[in-house]
Amino acid sequence: DVSKVVTVRPDGIITLPLTGDIKVSGWTAEQVRSEVKRRLERYLEAPEVSVTVADVRSYNFFILGEVKAPGKYQVKSHTTLLQAFALAGGFTTFADTNDIVVVRRSPRAGQQRIRVKYADLVKRGDIGLNPGDTIIVP
Predict the structure, then answer these.
(1) CB 3.0-4.6 Å disulfide test: which of 39, 63, 81, 83 passes with 135?
(2) Between these two residues, 56 and 28, which has the higher pLDDT value?
(3) CA 121 → CA 17, 29, 55, 56, 116, distances in Å?
(4) For the whole model, what pTM was predicted?
(5) Which ranges in 4-132 belong to alpha helices (H)?
(6) What is the β-pairing status of strands 134-137 and 59-65?
(7) Residues 46-81: pLDDT tens digits?
């Protein structure tokens, strides 16, 4: 019996008996099921695998400065910078939308400061937020 309830770790990896570590971040339940089944086939004949998402964990981002509702926001799915501005109620009349900064921490790159102009986001395309991003609107 290899049934197990597991939690996806912050690094996006699960660990199961016989299969070892599997990086599952961004995968659907069906993709996880297929990969677990494929790995178990080395040890078991016709393994039956079911995957159920028990809890969707959210992630946080922070927005500071000249927005109507600065603070910590918790979201359950991929969120973009434009969506973050909408969640924060939009800009105040004093906002400098030509000098927005997204502060992002990365294990490999350390802290990054991404400079953004609101007009460019609207014209050229939005950018996605990562968990823990801090948006500063001067």
Answers:
(1) 63
(2) 28
(3) 45, 32, 32, 29, 8
(4) 0.63
(5) 29-40, 81-87, 118-124
(6) parallel
(7) 888 999 887 777 788 999 999 999 999 988 888 999
